[in-house]
Amino acid sequence: MSYRPIEEYGIIGDLYSAALVGMDGSIDWLCLPRFDSPSVFAAILDDEKGGRFKISPTVEELSRKQLYWPDTKVLITRFFAPEGVAEITDYMPVGVSADDHRIIRRVKVVRGEMDFRMECSPAFDYARDDQETEISAEGARFRSEKLSLGLAADVPLRTEGDRAVAEFGLREDQMIVFALGEIEPGDGGDLSLLGRWEEELFLQTVDYWRRWLSRCTYAGRWREMFHRSALTLKLLTYEPTGAIVATLTTSLPEEIGGERNWDYRYDVQKSADGLMGEEGTFNLCTFWLVEALTRAGRLDEARLIFEQMLGYTNHLGLYAEEIGPSGEALGNFPQAFTHLTLISAAYNLDWALGKASL
Question: How far apart are CA 345 and CA 337, in angstroms?
Fold first, then answer.
């Protein structure tokens, strides 16, 4: 395995925590049960020991695409190959219970047929905790001293070290479901409960995101990006308090190999500039520039810079903290401040342009 560029990830969440899903079908970041909890999957930090939950086709000749179900944070990763077309639908059910946090992964073949490999390898507390893996007829249990997880699966599993793995094939219109969630320590109960009522959970989650977005009254220019940023900010909101985490991840440097790798999940204030190395350009500063130009009446400049910045988003409308010298995303991801300043810049620039046209 190798490290994917951070811009090649999408995000799913349940307003208590969130996960990064790569275009290769691998969940490489997840902390449970809260945003600031120790990691369960952290392959973005350590590809060998960090842990991941990957489902992907085994065929080598493959192209990929990621998109969100319209007006939601339900993520679809689609795979195209000569043998067929397949998709993984990932989501975390919203509005279920404050103590019920799980990831649901639907795997479906849309055309033809395709073989898959699934690997689930939690590495609790940044791979520092001892753990044990137990396979049963309905799935797998992963236990550590502080947290235990259950994986419900529609296919037989086996162990490879501490990992649960499976190989399976699907034909056109066939679908199977994997559900990963918290279980009680020592729980030997029915793991299939994690995946029960999955269709209802899916519809409930889609409905939640669409109802929430329908309350947005913005109808100006760049509406799609405005909505995408609003959904991202909502997903990064911790529901019990209403606080927005500055970013989902931790310890991703602003310079590869550098020391600017703060954990913004706890404290959004940075230490003062005096550190070694270089860094990229701050996205939020560019959107602040757009606002400043707007307020100064320099609307043509403001619009040009704003629309140029929209070209630096990833394929899902997500921004990291910075942009590197080659246009790559740098730092932790996705960055709430960037999306907040995008919304503010879009709103004020749209208002000013509308007023100027009267």
Answer: 12
- CA angle, 158 then 160 then 163, to 5°: 85
The DSSP string of 250-306 is: ----SSTT-S----TTT--PPPPS--SS---EEHHHHHHHHHHHHHTT-HHHHHHHH
pLDDT at 10 over 50: yes
- Give residue limits of the domains in the chain: 6-213, 223-356
What is the C-alpha to C-alpha distance for residues 358 and 269, in angstroms, rounded to an integer? 42
> How far apart, in whole angstroms, are the C-alpha atoms of residue 82 and residue 60?
10
Q: Are 6 and 253 in contact (CB under 8 A)?
A: no
- Cα(257)–Cα(254) distance, integer angstroms: 9
Per-residue pLDDT, averaged over 72-92, amounts to 97
pTM of the prediction?
A: 0.93
- Per-residue pLDDT of 86-95, as tens digits, reads 999 999 999 8
**Residue 181 in contact with residue 149, Cβ under 8 Å?**
yes
Higher pLDDT, 285 or 276: 285
Assign residue 15 a region (left: φ > 0; alpha: ψ between -120 and 50; beta: otherwise): left
Starting at the edge strand found earlier in the chain, the sheet holding 329-330 runs: 281-282, 322-323, 329-330
Output b/e per residue, 46-58; b: 16+ Cβ within 10 A. eeeebbbbbbbbe
**Which amino acid is located at 86 in the chain?**
A
pLDDT at 78 over 90: yes
Mean residue pLDDT across the chain: 92
Q: Which CATH number fits domain 6-213: 3.60.140.10, 3.30.1490.20, 2.130.10.10, 2.70.98.50?
A: 2.70.98.50
DSSP annotation of 8 reads G
**CA 332, CA 44: separation in Å to the nearest integer?**
11
For the chain, the first-to-last Cα distance in angstroms comes to: 57
User: For residue 146, how far is the Cα from the chain centroid?
Assistant: 24
Give the pLDDT band of residue 262 (cuts 50, 70, 90). Answer: low
DSSP category for residue 246 = S
